[in-house]
Amino acid sequence: MKNKIKELQRRRSDMVLGGGQEKINAQHKKEKLTARERIDKLLDPDTFVELGLFAKHRCTQLGMEKKELPADGVVTGYGEIQGRTVFIYSQDFTVMGGSAGPVHQKKMAETASLAYEASAPLIGLYDSAGARLQEGSENITFARLFCQNARCSGVIPQIAAILGPSAGGSVYSPALMDFIIMVKKTSFMFITGPATIKAVTHEESNNQALGGSAVHCRKSGVADLEAEDDDDCIENIKTLLSYLPSSCFEKPPRLTSQDDPHRLCPKLEEIVPGDRKKVYDVRLVINEIVDEGSFFEIKDGYARNMVIGFARVDGQSVGVIANQPRVLGGTIDIDASDKAARFIQILDAFNIPIVTLMDTPAFLPGINQEHGGIIRHGAKMLYAYSEATVPMVTIILRKAYGGGWSAMGPKELGIDLVFAWPTAECASMGPEGAAEVIWAKEIQSAPDPKAAREKFIKEYDKNFANPYLAAALRVIDDVIYPAETRRKIIQALRMLEKKQRPSSPRKHGIMPV
Question: Which long-range contacts link 110-114 to residues 24+ away (Cβ below 8 Å)?
Answer without folding.
Answer: 110/51, 110/52, 110/76, 111/51, 111/76, 111/77, 111/78, 111/87, 112/87, 112/145, 112/148, 112/149, 112/151, 112/152, 113/148, 113/151, 114/51, 114/78, 114/87
